[in-house]
Design a protein that fits this description.
- There is one protein chain.
- By secondary structure, the chain is of the alpha+beta class.
- Among the domains are: 114 residues, ATPase, nucleotide binding domain (Nucleotidyltransferase, domain 5, 2-Layer Sandwich); 52 residues, Alpha-Beta Complex (Actin, Chain A, domain 4).
- It has 8 helices and 16 strands.
- The strands form 5 sheets. The chain has a 5-stranded mixed β-sheet.
- A hairpin with a 2-residue loop joins strand 8 and strand 9.
- Bound molecules: adenosine-5'-triphosphate (ATP) and magnesium ion.
- The site of magnesium ion has 5 residues, from loops.
Amino acid sequence: MARENIVVGLDIGTSKIAAIIGDMSLGDPEQIEIIGVGIANSHGLRKGVVVDIEKTASSIREAIESAELMAGVEIGSVFAGIAGGHIQGMTMSGVVAVAGPEHEITEADVKRAISAAQALAIPVEREVIHAIPQGFVVDQQDGIREPIGMCGVRLEAYVHIVTGAVASAQNLVRSVYMAGLSVQDIVLEPLASSEAVLTPDEREFGVVLVDIGGGTTDIAIYKDGALMHTAVVSYGGSTVTNDIAMVLKMPPPDAEVLKCRSGCTLVDIVDTHEMISIPSLGENRRPRVLPRQVLAKVI
Ligand SMILES: Nc1ncnc2c1ncn2[C@@H]1O[C@H](COP(=O)(O)OP(=O)(O)OP(=O)(O)O)[C@@H](O)[C@H]1O
Ligand SMILES: [Mg+2]
């Protein structure tokens, strides 16, 4: 299969690394056939950020190899997801005068307006990951989605700009390189999730996408078909696991199993008489028995 027809997504998460291989040879760019998936436990990240390049690279290799095996193709480059507490999303506006003599807005005017919105002072340690137009104002008329071809003298673009720490992005890219692959582009994780799970109607009506991962919680908000807000919060399922381990005094791996097996977020729906058995710290200690409501309270 020709390499140019292959597209690969790599989700570098705190708990797991997932690789997905798509075949685009169906002819329609909207239709991608998934031909390989590989998942590996992730070891080199903390709260969505690479803290150990070598360990991350070896987890990436493992995920990619199993996806390659399933697809029967060899991978050269990937689109890599990025998240972490360093990510910031903000909406800025940029204004330009429409250039043409007939005052007809062209693609070049739109590009200039979008880059004017990015002209904000971005500190050297940060870089723009995405600049996604929300809507345009032509003269006094707002709420315009497609200004090209319209007439006006003043074009204003509202743009959602996602920035991230240069160092965190570089460490992510280096991990992928170390795994023997190149990075075609980096994509904000909640935007990739939005592409996968949201319908155009949901984005039109208004929707909040929340992806609770192991180390981060990723958020994307859409309204009127446009991306209104993105955020990455440095708390996820492992925060809950660590709280259980600390409060109930048990090893984190046991707390993880307990959470997934008996956890509940609503204390009131747990039967007051229901009991659970939990392991104790230290060898030769007998398991303890507790009301399941205690676990729900911790969660
Ligand atoms: N049945 C379950 N009940 C509760 N939590 C669960 C369950 N199954 C998985 N989890 C939690 O989901 C988290 C892992 O989610 P996910 O695989 O999406 O994370 P990730 O993408 O690797 O991390 P991140 O996106 O934060 O970097 C873990 O904290 C795990 O405990
Ligand atoms: Mg994730």
